[in-house]
Amino acid sequence: MSLSVCYMIKNEEEFIGASLTSVLELPCEEILIFDTGSKDKSPSILKSFQAKDERIDIHKLEWTNHFSDARNKIAKKARGEWIFFVDGDEVLDAETRRGVEQAIQSQKSVAFSLIQRNYTLDASQDQVIPFEGTNLPGLNEFPKSPVFYTDNYMERLYKKTSGLVYEGRIHESLLPFCRRRGLQHEKLPLILHHYGRLKSGHRQKLVYYLDLSRQKLKEEAQNPIAWVEYLVTLSELDEQEAAYKMAQLAIRQFPQEAQVLLTAYQVALRAGAYPEAEQWIRMKLRLTPEDLYSKSNLSTALMFQKKFDQSSRTALEVLGHKVDDFIANFNLGVIAFEEKRWLDAKRYLHAALKLKPQEAFILQALKKIEAEQQTN
Predict the structure, then answer these.
(1) What angle do CA 116, 119, 123 make, to 5 degrees?
(2) Which residues contact 66 (CB under 8 A, 6 or more apart)?
(3) Which domain holds residue 290?
(4) What is the CATH number of the domain that holds 286?
(5) What is the pTM of this model?
(6) Which residues fall within 8 angstroms of residue 321, CB to CB, at 6 or more apart?
(7) Do 209 and 80 fall into the same domain?
(8) What average pLDDT does this structure show over 27-34?
């Protein structure tokens, strides 16, 4: 089965070399790279790789502010029966390379999603997980600050002959097409190590993404995911007031959409709108009663409203199912601290600290507890 690896890049000098190095070991027919207007050293890096590997084919692509259109144009140029899209700031590990080969050979599905593991130094992002290793594939220098990550699935590997196309101006996806045509799609436990959020120009890219998300929302106002994407980008840019106003509109339009409710209550928590956050979390839990993440956030909304008993009961319920839940341990520690129950505060805050070892608030709170205990 022939495979075409496809890139769409712009200004990826920091990671394109590591990305290509990780891709060269794939048994692919060609590596198509379409540059949409790089102004950095990316073109010279690409030419140096092209000189060493004849499979690399470099092209220019006029950018039209539409990710799906660009990906679909690139796919039309590919010769392979299978298309594998990789971004210029993503690196494959050996397991992912093996898994891609096996997926193509299995022929079980016509489209596959891979895990995009987004590394960040920002511990405040929702649902980040501490990275416990000391090296990452393709990174010559490991960051000095603690590293965290989040995972999300991206449809990147698919059979060209199935007629699949991406849809959406931004946050493009193959899934709408798959659903309409009844085509088989499968999630693979394979990781694309994504380093884009470690780049110095990440915020500038987010500003651009916000503009595209705004355009997408105008074009797809009845699509709840378009609202979610817009809210997420506003929040990432720390535009909390604007995000909260949009969240209120989204809730009115999609009161039964779980993903809208999840994103809206996250926005409300960041904006300090705790009564609204509580209301929206409870709406979410009516749809997904076993959602521990929403229950731990309900504990947070209750805690900031000084409803300590309700907050504690909710957090303890979460810990009954998931003992290493950071939010539940943290909230119980804060409540115990406020109530001057020093032993309980230390126990829960130490449990939270194991999950996020560099959390400044916890370190300061533990110092204050030690001082209080010594005084008394």
Answers:
(1) 130
(2) 169
(3) 203-375
(4) 1.25.40.10
(5) 0.86
(6) 292
(7) no
(8) 98
